[in-house]
């Protein structure tokens, strides 16, 4: 590092380049962090470059160090030497957002251990837990829950993490949230229950997870208040999903889910066996097709 540092501090023409943006809109320090070059990071900061100076979009070197999980040493050095983890980019995303989206458990742990508030929201009203759920990073979600993250906070779109897990088919995180006691009975401001979310985008695995859980206390017949009109979850499914590949199989899985919820609400076992199925006749699918027409 010695020669590099000497060059930066002794040759004026090189010093002029230390804070310039390249054609990608990034500074040398951002690239050093992005590429995991700790020697270059130390030399640049030692030469007086602002440790938070990253890219034209406002991404800091600390955010850059999140991009590759192999950059743990660079991330730690930046954090320990004054990098601001709360500084957001032009879209309002901060360092915890990046770490949770990109799956960097090391960065998440380092931030939490440094005292970063896990309930800090970004431009979308999302917490770190919300982003971890979006990308189904179960280990990060579990760690955040262990360190005070709330699974009851809504984002700006009106979804809690458990509803987002259903909408995104984040299977591992969905199982985790249900196991940890997330409020699956929550109704969004659109009047959508967890069943409406499953009806809209849920895949077979999501349907299976919810069916196994039983969802006792969820109102099968509740109608939404916004979005796709005032519809029940089943009506949302019939309106949106019948033209999708595998629609018949999805419909049968969704109706098994509805039956599981009804059974739980009537005092039956909350956990429903995978082998327990409704009568799967051709009438089910054809009835649904007729409904849509």
From TrEMBL:
Alphabetized UniProt keyword annotations: ANK repeat, Repeat
ANK repeat coordinates: 24-56, 124-156, 157-189
Matches recorded under SUPFAM superfamilies: Ankyrin repeat
Residues spanning the signal sequence: none
Highest taxon above the source species: Eukaryota
This protein's name: Ankyrin repeat-containing domain protein
Organism of provenance: Cercophora newfieldiana
